[in-house]
Specification:
The longest helix has 16 residues, at 183-198. Helix content is 36%, strand content 28%. The chain folds into two domains: 1-92 and 173-244, P-loop containing nucleotide triphosphate hydrolases (Rossmann fold); 103-168. The chain is an alpha/beta fold and 244 residues long. The radius of gyration is 20 Å and the shape is globular. It has a six-stranded mixed β-sheet with strand order 5-6-7-3-8-9, sandwiched between helices.
Length: 244
Amino acid sequence: MEKDYAVKVENVSMHFNNCSEKIDSLKEYFLKIVKKQLFFKDFIAVKDVSFEVKKGEIFGIVGTNGSGKSTLLKIISGILTPTSGSVKINGTIAPLIELGAGFDGDLTAKENIYLNGAVLGYTKEFLDEKFDSIVDFAELHDFMDMPLKNYSSGMVARIAFAIATAINPDILIVDEILSVGDYLFQQKCEKRIKELMDAGVAIILVSHSAGQIESMCDRALWIEKSIPKMIGPAKEVCAAYQSL
């Protein structure tokens, strides 16, 4: 029987060990370890989160800064391994999590298309075939030979989004990238997301804009200070979040 979910998160928690005091040098760090004077605090970034995203669904995640949204996306993407719980992925995944991740600032935009595409698992032949459409979507034809370190954050976002959506992945993860760049390009990205949804792509979207989550998502999760507060229809979740 074919699984009807794209992502299933079950009782996921993530703990980090934070050093409880300031260490000024590597030497001091090792001395404290030898003398058993180094102590850590347990920091819970995500606590007992469970939800399921169905195929073709846009699922939103909202919460204030530091609530664990980005950590949760990194766990789903396989970048982090949860301390407890499990994540089941049904299909190929394309993460847009950290702006500029998988890019080299000293390389040109053209070179970075091939570099980032390779990180996402695309072959050179595929990128050759899709190169013009990637550049067309990003609308950066005159800047392909410019080093990426000279790009604005909005220009980097254009390239990153165009590469990640060059094919229809089964699951697309977008973390705040739509908040970067001009309004017209944000609209273009939203249109592309809706096209992906119509093609059956599951999308997990994190945004500080409750209005964006409400307008684009079917359901949403509100996570606050690592703890899931509410999950349900996006309109209801966003209303509760905004009343905080």
